[in-house]
Design brief:
The chain is α/β, with parallel strands linked by helices. About 55% of the residues lie in helices and about 15% in strands. It is built from 12 helices and 8 strands. The chain has an 8-stranded mixed beta sheet, sandwiched between helices. α3 crosses α4, α7 packs across α12 and α8 crosses α9. The longest helix is centred in the C-terminal third of the chain and has 23 residues. The chain is elongated, with a radius of gyration of 21 Å. The two termini are about 35 Å apart.
């Protein structure tokens, strides 16, 4: 699959588009000249111009020039974005592949809304996360009216900047509560661990660096050893030692329950959005 020649566009040039597009450009997977991005402000577009991508204020320009179009606006802005496409295109064009990264927007809704603008839309609903920018992302997706070539292409693109799996649409919101929102939970834990170290006298830069590395190392231990997290935890906890004393304090503070509740709350919010934005 020749990714160097494929033309990829982003309607919306914010954080998620940057994580995907900039991640692929910086890894040399996509040529900047083959990437088109639309945004509402010149400030957003300047980021992309600095990368060598094509930047425009017109959403339709992205559709006209690209084979794969990522819908990367906020969910409540989708209708306005699609109206802009219709006004620019001024008529039907060939079927293209649309990849949504919009939280809570179902395939049925995407097919309905896109079908009012372009004929026979091929649609993928994806749930990526921002660590794609550094090649350590997670993406799950489901699709409608797509070909094997379409899904192979999307899997290949996302796999270059993390791990990627196809899931039933019924699991999209549930997985999103973990992988989509999870980085924010991890950043909070890094900040809290660093604060604790600073409290005990460790310089802030060192505390932050080491706290981040703790999560990186722990994650790799789980992935590469295939051991249960509980087993790995037990191996660090010596009887009457320092770590089990710290674990005890975390349990007293309901850290485990709070993280479970955070995932549940994020999933419930996704379901609310799905209901709000359904066709």
């Amino acid at each position: 699959m020749d990714l160097q020649s494929i033309k990829v566009g982003f309607i919306g040039g914010g954080n998620m588009a940057s994580a995907i597009g900039a991640g692929l450009i910086r890894k040399g997977i996509l040529k900047p000249a083959n990437v088109w991005v639309s945004g509402r402000t010149e400030k957003t577009l300047s980021f992309w111009r600095d990368l060598g991508a094509n930047a425009t204020l017109r959403n339709g320009d992205v559709v006209l020039n690209c084979e794969v179009i990522f819908l990367a606006v906020k969910p409540h802005m989708l209708d306005d974005a699609l109206t802009g496409i219709k006004e620019t295109l001024k008529g039907n064009i060939e079927s293209k592949l649309y990849v949504s990264v919009l939280v809570g927007i179902s395939l049925d809704t995407l097919m309905f809304k896109l079908g009012n603008i372009v004929p026979k839309p091929r649609v993928i609903r994806s749930m990526p996360n921002t660590p794609m920018m550094v090649g350590e992302g997670i993406t799950v997706y489901c699709s409608r009216n797509t070909t094997t070539k379409d899904t192979d292409l999307v899997t290949t693109l996302f796999s270059h900047i993390g791990v990627c799996e196809i899931v039933p649409e019924a699991l999209m919101n549930a997985v999103g509560g973990l992988s989509g929102s999870g980085p924010a939970y991890a950043y909070l834990m890094i900040e809290a661990l660093a604060d604790g170290a600073v409290r005990m006298g460790v310089p802030r830069p060192m505390a932050t660096k080491f706290a981040a590395q703790v999560l990186v190392g722990a994650g790799k231990m789980v992935l590469e050893t295939n051991r249960h997290p509980g087993q790995l935890k037990d191996e660090v906890c010596s009887p009457a030692g320092t770590t089990i004393t710290g674990i005890h304090e975390m349990e007293r503070g309901s850290v485990r329950g709070s993280l479970m509740n955070a995932v549940e709350a994020a999933v419930n919010r996704s379901e609310e959005l799905a209901s709000k934005f359904s066709k």
